[in-house]
Structures are given as C-alpha cells and as structure tokens.
Amino acid sequence: MIHGSDSALVERALEDRDPFPGTRGFAGDLPDGRLVRDVLGRVPLFVERTGEGWGFSPTALADPVPFPAGHVDDERVWTLPAPSPFAGEREAVAATEGAIGASLALDSDGLAVAFSGGVDSAVVASRLEAPLYVVGFEGSHDIAAAREGASAMGRDLRVVECTHADIERAVPRVARATDRTNAMDVGIALSLFLVAERAVADGFDRLAIGQGADELFGGYEKVVRTDHRVESDSVRGATREVIASLPDQLERDVLAIRAAGAEPVAPLLDDRVVRAALRLDGPMLATDEERKRVFREAAREFVPREVANREKKAMQYGSLIARELDRLARQAGFKRRMDDHVTKYVESLLD
C-alpha cells in the first residue's frame, strides 16, 4: 500500500531516479514488498527497531523509528537536486507563481483551511472554496492577524478559541499520536490538532495547511545570518539545510492532524513548487530586509499586498498555546528551574 501516490508512478520514479515525479509525497510498500518514502518525507512511515514490521503511525508499532526519507529499504535512491539558479528574479517569480497556481487546483470537497493570517496560509486559502479556521487564546496575535487577513481577502473566518481545559485534554492525544513530548513539538502539534478537531466537528475531513513555505523559500532568520545554527556560509546552502529538516517536522504535523480525524493537504509541498524553490539563490530567497522575497512577490498574484507582506510568529507562539502550556506546567508544580519542565509536565499527563 502506497499513501500519496500509486505504486506505478513510484516505480517509474525509482527507475528514473526522479525525486519529484509529480506528487505531494508518498510512502508505503511496493508490490514486491520494498518500503519506500519520498525525498522530503512528506508522508510519515515508521518501522520497528527490530526491522520486523512497519506502519504509517508510530502508535501501530511497539518500538517505532522513522523510515528515512529518500530511501527504498536500506538504499538511499533520491537526494535533493541542485539545479542551476534562475537567470533573474522576473523568471523566478513567474515560475514560482505558476507552480503555486498549479498546486492550488484542488477539489475543495470536504476541505477546510488552517489560516493564521500569514502569507503562507493566505496563499493556500486564496484559490480554495473552503472555510478558514484559526486557533488561539483570546487576545492572541494569530487570531488578530487572521481576522485582518480574512477581511482583506473578503473571506469568512471561524475562530477556535482555546481554554486551559482544551490544552489539558488534547496534550495526551497529540503526544501519543506524534510520539513526542518536548515543548516545541507539542505546542505546534496542539495548534494543528485543535484546528483539525474543530473542522472535523463541523463536517470536514481534510485540512489544507501552509507548511513548507518557510523551509523552501528562505523564511528563517538563520538562513540570512548563516550563523552557528547552520553549517553553510551561503543563503542557498543554509536553505537546503533547513529543507533537510522537513521529514522530522512533517511527521509531527501530519500525525497531529490525523489524530483529530482529518487528512492534511499541503499544496506548497507539491513537487512543482519544490522544483521552483530549489532554483532560487541568494537574494531571491532572503535578504537582511526581507525573507521569502520571491515567494512574497509571487504571492501578490493570489492575495492582497498587505497580506503578502505580513510577517507572523510561529504558530505555537502566535496562538499563545506555548505560553499557556508553560503556565499549566508551572501550575502543576513543574517550575522553570527544572530541566525541560514542560516536557516533564507532558509526560505526567501521559502517566
């Protein structure tokens, strides 16, 4: 069984050594029994540490470890290509715009959109006839930004306001589903889970997300600074390092959404978008003044300029979920002077 594609397409990609055969990721077993996972790890896949069993979720296994992205069984067959950069920014913007537009040609049946008001989720929402959902505590940055963004785009918005009871109820579910207990992973997973949970309660079974744009298009400060957090001394090289972190992040995000009963849809991780992003170089990605430069320029074809230009906080901070998770941990006796106090709190809820 292959998730995300059909086995014939995957087998052709294997024969051609083509890492981007026209999917949004795939994983599973081929007809001959070999396990396979795409080069960006967009579909989670796990194996027993003993090597005797596999599944699409860690909860299905006794001692799961992630199956490595780009592999067929023990062999790495796909790696990120390093194509020649675009000749100029105009060509780069046109190619990125075309790739994004193609990726958004989706069936909107049963689809909702996780919408934070930032450029990534706004671009995803722009061509989809689907309701927009934002999650956060009252007074959070994300709720305010989503209201402004939805208003600028002429769209209705459904607000999922969190309470401490929601966090306490959801933490064990997302920690078990993702097999993670650290504060950052749980905070991100909670945001996605709570949005997906409300969308499912409203009758939707798919959730469109903007994941991938920051990694692909130079959205992180460290790719501009090329500081101690990256090994490369170039913006393009640092961006490729960040792209290599996608398999680990996407496992968490996909599993959190599935735990709520929805299937994630990530248009900006479409092979066509990835191919365009890999041809960006230097200032096309980011400068000291602006991150995701070409992406934002292309985004103006889809969303109002003020939305395309908007900076936003990471979802766990913009929603205030990370802050309130920390507050709950301290109220439960896990003080900040303790190492990894939020992790210990999460683990106590699992016990």
Give a structural overview:
The chain is built from 16 helices and 13 strands. By secondary structure, it is of the alpha/beta class. It folds into 2 domains: 75 residues, no CATH class; 234 residues, HUPs (Rossmann fold, 3-Layer(aba) Sandwich). It has a 5-stranded parallel beta sheet, with helices on both faces. A 3-stranded antiparallel beta sheet has the order 1-2-3, with no helix packed on it. The longest helix has 19 residues. One of its GO terms (cellular component) is cytosol.
Distance separating the two termini: 34 Å
> Uncertain regions: pLDDT < 50 for 5+ in a row?
none
The averaged pLDDT comes out at 94
Order of helices and strands: EHEEEEEEEHEHEHEHHEHHHHEHHHHHH
By CATH reckoning, the class of the largest domain would read: Alpha Beta
Helix-strand makeup class: alpha/beta
- What is the beta-strand fraction? 5-15%
Domain Asparagine synthetase: 111-225, 240-335
Keywords: ATP-binding, Nucleotide-binding
Pfam families: Asn_synthase
Protein name: Asparagine synthase
Summarize the structure.
The protein is of the alpha/beta class and 351 residues long. It has 16 helices and 13 strands. The longest helix is centred in the middle third of the chain and has 19 residues, at 183-201.
List the helices and strands and how they pair.
Layout: E1 2-3, H1 7-16, E2 27-29, E3 35-37, E4 46-48, E5 54-55, E6 64-66, E7 71-72, E8 75-76, H2 89-103, E9 111-114, H3 119-126, E10 132-136, H4 141-153, E11 157-161, H5 164-178, H6 183-201, E12 206-208, H7 213-217, H8 221-225, H9 235-243, H10 246-259, E13 263-265, H11 271-277, H12 293-299, H13 305-308, H14 315-318, H15 321-331, H16 341-350
